[in-house]
Amino acid sequence: MTTTHGNIEAPRKAPVPSAPARKKRRRRLDAPSMPIRLVKGLVLLIICAVVIVPFIGIASTSIADPKEVTRAGGFVLWPHGINFSSYESLFAGGVVTQALLVSIGITALGTLVSLTGSTLLAYSLSRPGSFAHQPILIMVLLTLLFAPGLIPNYLAVKEYGLLDSFASLILPTAINAFNVIVLRAFFMGIPRELVDSARIDGAGDFGIFWRLVLPLSKAVLAVIGLFYAVGYWNSFFSALLYINDTGKWPLQLVLRTYVINNSQLGGAQLGATADQLPPQASIQMAILVISIVPILIVYPFLQRHFAKGVLTGAVKG
Amino acid sequence: MNDVSVRARPARRTRAEAQDPAFSTPPAVRRKRTWRERAKRDRVLLLMAIPGLVLLLAFHYVPLLGNLIAFQEYLPFVPLGHSPWVGFDNFAVIFNGDPAFLNALRNTLEITLVQVVLVFPAPILMALLLNSLLSERLKQIVQSILYLPHFLSWVIVVAVFQQMLGGSGLLNNALRAGDHGTVNILGDPHNFIAVITSQVIWKDTGWATILFLAVLSQIDASLYEAASMDGASRWSQIWHVTLPGMRGIIILLLILRLGDSLSVGFEQIILQQGAFGRDASEVLDTYVYNNGVLGGQWGVAAAVGLVKGIVGVLLVFGANKVAHVFGEAGVYQKQ
């Protein structure tokens, strides 16, 4: 809900820099003096360290030797010995294993629902002049301006009988108008001639969509799909609001309870039978690592395409 | 752009033709496509819109109507719409200035103010710094690092801050090791605004540079050349060329931020209310959640939420109007 719609119409000009223009300017600028370059380098180094160091520390604590963690008072910046016992205890079938399965399921299913609904809606909006085009478009766009508010949302979900169901984690946030607009902009950019020739060959609207438009849109679909997937994986508030049954908690709620609120995570919660559990801090950091790793895996792809996607939507929306 | 050529039927007229009297065809021909026929022609498209529209209707437009409970005394076991109407009674906390509500409002505005001053300029400065780097490669590496926190959830960000600044975090461990005692950062209500502001900066500054960098790369190189030839130093080039070039986007984003004045990081704050206490950390959104979902005062919570939503929309329109007065494009434009 928060991330993207600040960018809706942001840069009006085409944002893709032309490489020659940039080079030209660089050459004209006299290179900065040595002290300035040093200061700049130092500032950048500090900024990057502020972002990176916590992750290193978290990963280190999760795999550090139990004795070392206890000696350090709960946080190890760089481990001397490696020990995976905290991961073993998390995957032993307790709350964390369960929450991980829930989160994976919600993310997979939610992404499928969101991507299907948004793609179909975006395609149906990609032809100005079609029946009811204007009212439908306005209906989509208005959702960016007005949000119903927390209480009405909650009561609606309650009235639909969806409290404590996995559907409540997916359906209310399934369609993001911003993503629909990005997809629509892409579909509208598909060359008319291609569509025409398919029609002459006898394809109907759905045939064109399925056999021509979708295969051409693989990249943008992947980007939007990841957009949604990251959203579902990270979503915390829907679960806080709609899910009371701890057995249906996604990972983010488990993180809040056992890491931020520091509730004791013992053998009963972990389902582990080991006599000696790893230190609480290691287990907590291992949960954090488990919830960060999927993001890290898709991150290179996200980074390459998201910036582009955000700007495309911004320009054409 | 029109859909006519898609059909490849010469008999139909394009929109340009429809507006041009020279193309006007006899009414008989024009009436050929009634709305029924158009609906029939586009039935597949309409069918495709249905799943998405149903979701938007059910979880956006129907709940909008649910705001009516702001004017009712909500009774949990009575079906919606059968609760007694109470007029504006639920709005009394706002009109009569209930202390808890005023506290939430004050905290919200304070946080907004601090964040507009401290959070808003951060990505602009960062973009200027990145833009001044001569090595593309270095720039890309720094960008990859800085964008990362944006994709992490608030739960993770708050947990990361705990590990750094919390009681058994990195900082306090280091202080203990050096016998300096410990500092209670995440738990002192006085630090609340400082802490959440630094979290926002940590999480989103990098990502927010994207738009500014895109605009920076669009600034005409010849302006720099001209400035340089006129003897402008690098600093005065930033002041006289770069910043004016970014003015449009800065104003646009500022409008959007101001329109959002009454929303300040709900997830982020609710996660840390336990640590900082409600006095310091209660904002309008958490007030609605705590009083409604947790406290059962549905009508009052909905009333506060409704007023907040309406004021929010008015703020966007207002800020946009101000931007027009100053000759900027704003979020939307009158056609």
Automatic annotation (TrEMBL), chain A:
Keywords: Cell membrane, Membrane, Transmembrane, Transmembrane helix, Transport. SUPFAM superfamilies: MetI-like. Residues 1-28 are annotated as: Disordered. CDD domains: TM_PBP2. It comes from the Bacteria. It is found in: Cell membrane. It is a multi-pass membrane protein. Residues 100-298 form the ABC transmembrane type-1 domain. The keyword Cell membrane applies. PANTHER family: ABC TRANSPORTER PERMEASE PROTEIN MG189-RELATED-RELATED, POLYGALACTURONAN_RHAMNOGALACTURONAN TRANSPORT SYSTEM PERMEASE PROTEIN YTCP. Belongs to the binding-protein-dependent transport system permease family. This is ABC transporter permease. It comes from Frondihabitans sucicola.
TrEMBL record, chain B:
It is found in: Cell membrane. It is a multi-pass membrane protein. The chain crosses the membrane at residues 44-62, 111-134, 146-165, 298-317. Residues 105-319 form the ABC transmembrane type-1 domain. Its main location: membrane. The keyword Metal-binding does not apply. The keyword Repeat does not apply. GO terms for molecular function: ATP binding. SUPFAM superfamilies: MetI-like. CDD domains: TM_PBP2 (cd06261). Keywords: ATP-binding, Cell membrane, Membrane, Nucleotide-binding, Transmembrane, Transmembrane helix, Transport. InterPro entries: MetI-like (IPR000515), MetI-like_sf (IPR035906), UgpAE/MalFG_permease (IPR050809). Residues 1-35 are annotated as: Disordered. PANTHER family: BLL4140 PROTEIN (PTHR43227). Belongs to the binding-protein-dependent transport system permease family. This is Polysaccharide ABC transporter ATP-binding protein. It comes from Frondihabitans sucicola.
